[in-house]
Design brief:
By secondary structure, the protein is mainly alpha-helical. The chain has 20 helices and two strands. The chain has three domains: about 270 residues, no CATH class; about 210 residues, no CATH class; about 80 residues, no CATH class. Strand 1 and strand 2 form a beta hairpin.
Length: about 600
């Protein structure tokens, strides 16, 4: 619904921060931004498509999601900080003409993370049974984890190559490989799951699974989807390796012609790389743990909440005195419902983080010349943009959650109310992304992780209490996520306020954006209702509601003057827009 104004706001933000930078850097920012849009859209496409396949549904989505959560945690531990660490160290060497030193960092990182990746893959493969049984409490998840295991190694190696070329100011390796990886993941996942769903005899012949065994079929379809993930990471790595080999001659020419070469051994380089990558990974590890909290507590909580009866859902009748196996299956299904809302929530967040990343060097640069006023203006503006992105998305999801689910998940419509609750958390998550970039810019790299850790503790406690209540059950997970993000936001904001005079203007940052968002939401709901009453067509009604509500939102933002003159001028075609508004008497 909001992808078009996401793009506009991201471009607006990039212009604001990069207007004094070199043109090549602005191009690099744009490359990364649009690659992220492509990656997230492809990710949403395949998750939506396979959820609607016969036999996959919410149950298969649940197993797929649980596997991804463990996988994400292991990646956060083993590889998340690699690109930043390698790119930082490489760029420092290149800046002084030490191309030999830059390449030695690359070689050291490849060796280090080849070992880390191999060990991590082995842990995931051979520890899949233990993780499934004792951590996520879903035994069948082990097959999903085993299929994912090899990809950890290839992601580690790919991250090193990406980091090296980013340090050489070449963004094409990163952006192209990410889009390529997601394209093949999307294509292969849909293909493999479609084959398994359309030809159930394959599972019967290969694994002796009855066509009536709904749970086992969902598990093996999810495992097939993760095989596609592993294959896509292999393809991405091969592309990056070829990218490097094609430029190897030029790299060594630069090394030979370089005057400066600082000698350092691999051991010291290992320490430097880890010193930078570990703090970066910490926040990602806590975020991954945050999602695993849901998986672990949902399974245990559902066993308690539904020990007497599993409520009826869809066409399935209530199950009285359920067995442990039936309770585990229900927990997996409910996890699948939650993951559907996460898929939609992650799209606007991915766009938001693409410009919040730009905030780090912008603030650091301002503070380097002791320009606190400029740094404060950048943060205040960034928070405003995050609010203007997140609020309409949240209100839109709340107003049109059921129609959106009917459109995207016609064969798995349950769970739209989870999206409505998660929308509240999305607003604070977007703000936390911006605050995280701000805190890193002022040098407080551990503050975002600390705030999130405090929030995670609160989330765990609330999950344990709420999910065990039969009347609340799975809804406890998104409710606790809202509390978690509010706590993290409050902590990060207080820490940042100690370093720069950041403030949230009640009218500009809260009241006016809320009025615009609520006007948009009302328009969306009324438009959808009227079109459905007349046409009885969900797709047309949803599209009409989105189009008209987006127009209402932009109009209200303009008439309420949420953006001042200078901010209007930062928009694409800002001069023409501003002249038009002045001519109409809206701006003077």
């Amino acid at each position: 619904m909001s992808i078009f104004y996401h793009i506009i706001y991201t471009i607006m933000f990039a212009r604001f921060y990069m207007k004094q930078e070199k043109k090549s850097f602005m191009i690099n920012v744009s490359i990364v931004m649009f690659s992220q849009i492509a990656v997230k859209l492809l990710g949403m496409v395949y998750r939506v498509v396979i959820t609607n396949f016969r036999g996959f549904g919410d149950l298969g989505n649940g197993y797929l999601n649980v596997g991804f959560q463990i996988y994400t945690l292991l990646l956060a531990i083993s590889s998340i900080g690699i690109p930043n660490a390698v790119s930082k160290l490489t760029s420092e060497k290149v800046a002084v003409g030490d191309y030999a030193g830059a390449h030695k960092i690359f070689r050291a990182a490849m060796l280090l993370f080849a070992i880390v990746g191999t060990v991590s893959s082995a842990i995931l493969y051979f520890g899949a049974g233990f993780i499934s049984k004792y951590i996520v409490h879903l035994d069948d998840t082990r097959y999903v984890l085993m299929c994912l295991a090899p990809s950890v190694l290839f992601v580690c190696l790919s991250s090193v190559i990406r980091g090296y070329f980013v340090g050489m100011e070449n963004m094409h390796a990163t952006s192209t490989s990410q889009v390529l990886e997601q394209f093949f993941k999307c294509t292969l996942t849909i293909l493999i799951v479609y084959i398994l769903a359309s030809f159930p005899a394959i599972l019967t012949v290969l694994f002796d699974i009855s066509e009536k065994d709904e749970n086992s079929r969902a598990v093996f379809m999810a495992s097939g989807a993760q095989i596609a993930t592993t294959l896509s990471t292999v393809i991405s790595f091969l592309y990056l390796l070829l990218f490097y080999l094609r430029r190897k001659k030029k790299i060594f020419e630069n090394i030979k012609s370089a005057d400066l070469t600082e000698k350092s051994d691999f051991r010291s380089l290992f320490k430097k790389i880890l010193f930078i990558s570990v703090p970066i990974s910490l926040g990602s590890v806590i975020s991954a743990v945050n999602r695993i909290i849901d998986t672990a507590t949902i399974t245990r909580g559902i066993e308690v909440a539904f020990k007497a009866v599993i409520p009826a859902h869809g066409n399935i009748a209530a199950i009285y005195s359920p067995t442990l196996s039936q309770l585990s299956k229900e927990a997996a299904r409910l996890s699948g419902l939650l993951s559907k809302s996460d898929t939609l929530i992650n799209l606007p967040l991915a766009i938001n983080i693409s410009f919040s990343t730009v905030l780090v060097p912008a603030i650091a640069g301002a503070l380097a010349i002791n320009d606190k006023k400029s740094a404060t203006e950048k943060v205040n503006y960034s928070l405003l943009i995050s609010i203007l992105i997140a609020l309409p998305c949240a209100v839109g999801y709340i107003a049109l959650a059921s129609p959106i689910y009917r459109l995207l998940y016609p064969n798995a419509r349950l769970g739209y109310d989870l999206l409505q609750i998660s929308a509240f958390a999305m607003v604070f998550t977007a703000l936390n992304q911006t605050l995280s970039g701000s805190l890193q810019g002022v040098g407080k790299v551990f503050a975002p992780a600390t705030g999130l850790l405090i929030g995670c503790v609160a989330k765990f406690i609330l999950n344990v209490i709420l999910i065990r209540q039969p009347a609340i059950n799975i809804y406890g997970a998104p409710i606790s996520s809202v509390v978690c993000q509010i706590i993290a936001f409050s902590y990060s904001f207080c820490v940042l306020k100690k370093h720069i005079s950041v403030k949230i203007d009640l009218s500009k940052h809260i009241i006016k954006p809320l009025i615009s968002a609520f006007a948009m939401g009302a328009c969306a709901y009324i438009t959808y209702s009227v079109f459905m009453l007349i046409l009885h067509n969900n797709m047309i009604s949803v599209c009409a509601a989105i189009a008209l509500s987006a127009a209402v939102y932009f109009t209200s933002v303009v008439f309420l003057k949420i953006l001042d003159d200078s901010e209007i001028l930062m928009l694409p075609m800002g001069n023409k827009i501003y002249k038009f508004l002045v001519k109409r008497g809206i701006y003077k």
